[in-house]
Amino acid sequence: MSTKEDNSAQALARDLRVPPEFARYEDHAEAEVIVRLEQWKQKACDVLSTLRSAVHSREALSAQAQAEVVYSAAAFDGESPWVLEASRTTAQDILSVFDAPGTDLLERILRDLVKPVFLLNPHPEINIDTGRKLPRSAGGASGHLDYLEAQEWKSHPELYNVLSWCLRHVDSRAVERLWHLFIPPIMTYLDDYQAPYKLRGVHLVSELLTHAPTALLRRTGMDTLLSASLRSCLTFLHSTETPDLVRAAVPTHIRLTTATTPEGSAARFDQLCSLLGDGIVGNLWVYASRDAETIHASVDVLPELVQALGIGTVRFLKALIPQLVFPLVPAPENGASTPDKLSSARALLSVIRACAPRIHKWRGTILEAVLKCWVDLADRACPDKGSLALQNAVRSVCAVLLESCRSKTPEIDNELRRITALDPHVFSTLLESYTGLDVPAQCKSKARATIPRSALTATHP
C-alpha cells in the first residue's frame, strides 16, 4: 500500500466531514449561513469527484484509510440536506469499491469513527461494551436527564447515513460480532426526545431486524427494550414527523413481535393487543383525533396489524368499526378526502376478514356506510382514478361482508333486495350479484335518498 495514496485519500475524506449546521438546516434564517452551507455542498461534490479518482482499489489503501473513505462517502448515500444528486451518485461510485466491506472494515468504522461520538452520551439502559440491556438504568432516576444533556452526536448529522450503510452491508453472522457497536447508537436515535431523530432510529431498527438473529435479540434483552421504545413512538403527537413515525414504527414493531414471540403465544397476543389498543386506539385516536394526517397514517397501518392479530381483533370491534366507517359517510362534518376513504375501506376489509365469525353483528353499521359512500360515488359525473379505486374497494368490502354474514344471518338476502329496491339503478351495480335481482333496462331512477335505517334490519351492538 502507498503512504502517499493513504494520505491523499484521508485528507480528502476529512474535507468531507459534514458541518454541524446541517443538523438544523431548516431552522437557519440567516442568509449568510445558508449561503455558506450551499457553497460547501458544491465544494463537497468536487471533493468527492477527486476522491473517486484517487480511490482506484481497496488494496491500495490501509485499513484506516479505507474506514475514513467509506465513512465520508457513506455520509452522502442518502436523502439529506447536504446531499446533491451529483454528490450522491459520486459517493455511490466510491462505495461500490467497498461493496463487500467485510466485518473487519465495518468494525473499524463503527469502533473508531462512530462509537467515540456516542460515548459522550451513553444510553442509560444499554451496556456499551456488550450491547445488552442493563438490569437497572445507569445513573439512577436522573440517568435519562443526564443522557439528554449536551448531545454531541447531534453535531455529526452524517452519522445516520453511515450507520444505515453499515447495517445494509452486514450479515447475520457479523451482526453478532458488531452488536455492541450497533446497539448503543441505534437506541440513542430511537429514544431521543425529538421526533426527526426518533424516526431515523425506527428506520435503523428496521434495517437491524433484517439481519439480527431472534436468539440474539432475546439473549441481550433487546427484544423488550426495542418493543417499549417502538410503542413510545406513538406518543409523539402533533409533530410534522408524526404520520411518518406512525407508518414506520407500527410495521417495525410487528416485525419485532413476530420475530421474537412464538406463533399463537400469549406473549405475541399481548404485545399486538397493546400496540393496537393502547398505541393506536387509546392514544392516536384519542389525543390526535383532529390531526387528519396522523389519523390517516394510523388507518394505513391497520391492515398489517389486524392480519398479525387475527381473530383477536374482535376485542377491538367497538372502537374499530365506528372509526373506519365514519370517513365513508358523506356528511357536512366529514371532511375525509378520497385517499382517506380508500384507506378506511382497505382497513375495514382487513377487519371483516379477520373477524368474520363475529362481524355479522356489525353488518347494519357497515352496510349503511358502504351504501352511502356508493351513492356519493354514483353522483360524481366524471370519476377520477381515486374514485374508481374507491369503488373497487367498496365492492370488495361489500362482497367480503356479505360472504361472512350469510351463514350467520340467512335473512340477509331479503335485506339486500329491500335495499336494492330503494334505487335499483344505483344499487344493482353493487348488489345484483348477491341478490339475484334482475333490473329492468328501462329503470333509470335518479333518486338519491338517504338509506333509511328501517331498511337495514340488523343492528350493531
Task: Describe the secondary-structure layout.
Blueprint: H1 3-15, H2 31-54, H3 63-74, H4 85-96, H5 102-118, H6 143-147, H7 159-168, H8 172-177, H9 179-190, H10 195-211, H11 214-219, H12 222-232, H13 242-260, H14 266-287, H15 292-300, H16 302-309, H17 317-325, H18 338-354, H19 363-378, H20 385-406, H21 412-422, H22 424-435
Description:
By secondary structure, this protein is mostly helical. 63% of the residues lie in helices and 0% in strands. It is built from 22 helices and no strands. α2 (31-54) packs parallel to α4 (85-96). The longest helix has 24 residues, at 31-54.
Short description:
With 461 residues, the chain is an all-alpha fold. It is 63% helix and 0% strand. It has helices at 3-15, 31-54, 63-74, 85-96, 102-118, 143-147, 159-168, 172-177, 179-190, 195-211, 214-219, 222-232, 242-260, 266-287, 292-300, 302-309, 317-325, 338-354, 363-378, 385-406, 412-422, 424-435.
* Class from helix and strand fractions: mainly alpha
**Would you tell me the overall average pLDDT?**
87
- Unreliable spans are 436-460
The general outline is elongated
Q: What pattern of helices and strands is seen along the backbone? A: HHHHHHHHHHHHHHHHHHHHHH
Question: Major beta sheet, specifics?
Answer: none
Strand content: under 5%
Helix content: 55-70%
Task: Note the main attributes of this structure.
mainly alpha, disordered C terminus, 63% helix, 22 helices, 461 residues
